[in-house]
Amino acid sequence: MAERKKAVKKDRNEKRVRFSFFSGMDEVKKSNFFKVTGSMVAVFALMLKSSVILTLAVVVTAFGIMFITKTVAMRSAKFFVGQQRALGAVNGYVEEMIHGQKVIKVFCHEDIAKREFDALNDELCENATQANKFANILMPIMGNMGHLQYVLIATLGGTMATFGLGGMTLG
């Protein structure tokens, strides 16, 4: 009986520790969320104060980058779904053939089983190739779009400073 009380007490204490840990995590997450959000709002306000035109250029190019990223990712996602379906079909087919190996041998269906496996494997290979093709071009596209955004903002800011537009000056 005493051991049971100790076990219940230990279990209760462990639950308290876990609860306090997770509730503390919630507070940390909330605090970090507000810190990050507040910092982003402050930076955006300073950008607007510094130059509305440059801020709009940054926002427009950022949305352009997000649109292009979303478009490429959606194409890639379609093929990743196809890859998983084809992988499931290949795995299921292999498992069936392994379990029915004696029947396949007895009725001489090796060639048929090989042709069916090759067809399933080709579909898997095609989906995997297409999925990885789009996924692998995503990062270079994003990097180049970031460089293009930098050049656009620098050129626009330099032009504004050269002609004295928007309160920008040289030096």
Describe this structure in words.
The chain is built from 4 helices and no strands. The mean pLDDT is 86. Helix 1 (2-50) packs across helix 2 (52-99) and helix 2 runs antiparallel to helix 4. The chain is flat. It has 171 residues and is mostly helical. The chain has helices at residues 2-50, 52-99, 101-106, 110-163. Helix content is 92%, strand content 0%.
**Outline, from the CA principal axes?**
flat
**Cα-atom Rg, whole angstroms?**
30 Å
- How large is the share of residues in beta strands? under 5%
Order of H and E elements: HHHH
Straight-line distance between termini: 83 Å
What value does the average pLDDT take? 86
Structural class: mainly alpha
Poorly predicted runs are: none
Q: Count of DSSP helices?
A: 4
Q: Helix share of residues?
A: over 70%
| E-strand count | 0
Topology:
Blueprint: H1 2-50, H2 52-99, H3 101-106, H4 110-163
Helix pairs in contact: 1-2, 2-4
Key words describing this protein structure:
4 helices; 0% strand; mainly alpha; 171 residues; single chain
Brief characterization of the structure:
By secondary structure, the protein is mainly α. The protein has helices at 2-50, 52-99, 101-106, 110-163.
